[in-house]
């Protein structure tokens, strides 16, 4: 007969899980007003991992690209991603505010009532993806590389980097999920309602990052998917993000855009449609050539 009462231990474990975000400090180090956050570190880790995985492919698959070509491609891609992410947020999520505060689009300062450092308030994944793709295209066209061949090389490495971006959101306690009474729910310090919420950042890190990366990595050399990595990434990301958005809290200033759908879901639908059209164009183009 077991006389050990495990109920207290179970309650204690649940409490630890539910309050985990409150025990995570998003700041690595602070010196005066200057701080280094885990979120910024996650971006560095994500880009570095993608870069090294691309070099791993070049080396082990005997591809004819040199280090300088890939470094320049990533520099262009990162610049395009950051600009696209910022402008995407301005256009898709808070256009009215930034039209009355245009300097804050590209400057992390507020000038009303004195000079205040605000940081960049908002980045859009969809804008970042478009910006990175466009800047990479311009670089590739300038150097006369094959766009689809390079896209096949780099795209499978991008998804795993996204995992770290969402972990950064989780550490920041932002972009949390909708209210839930499930045991998986957590309390986020930034949530004024003090309700249990889905840790949707972790759902996204797993499905849009790890799962999508695994799928693309396994099929990357399959001849049936030649030149299809980029459209498959758009379709796969849009698919996973669309369904996870049902667990994610919509942006407070936007709410639901069309019936039960958030802005993120509308953009994901457009992303999947764009990916499908892109795949059809590629198939038609290479069938003729």
Question: Could you give a quick summary of the protein structure above?
Answer:
By secondary structure, the protein is mostly helical. Helix content is 60%, strand content 6%. Helix 6 packs parallel to helix 8.
Task: Summarize the structure in words.
With 289 residues, this protein is mainly α. It is built from nine helices and six strands. Helices cover 60% and strands 6% of the residues. Strands 1-2 form a two-stranded antiparallel sheet. α2 (38-60) packs across α3 (67-92), α2 (38-60) packs antiparallel against α6 and α3 (67-92) packs antiparallel against α5. The longest helix is centred in the N-terminal third of the chain and has 26 residues, at 67-92.
Mean pLDDT: 85
Order of helices and strands: HEEHHHEEHHHHEEH
Distance between the termini: 76 Å
Strand content: 5-15%
Indicate the radius of gyration in whole angstroms.
21 Å
Number of helices: 9
Number of extended strands = 6
Indicate the overall shape: globular
Topology:
Layout: H1 7-18, E1 27-31, E2 34-37, H2 38-60, H3 67-92, H4 95-100, E3 109-110, E4 116-117, H5 125-142, H6 147-172, H7 200-219, H8 229-244, E5 256-258, E6 261-262, H9 263-288
Helix pairs in contact: 2-3, 2-6, 3-5, 6-7, 6-8, 7-8, 8-9
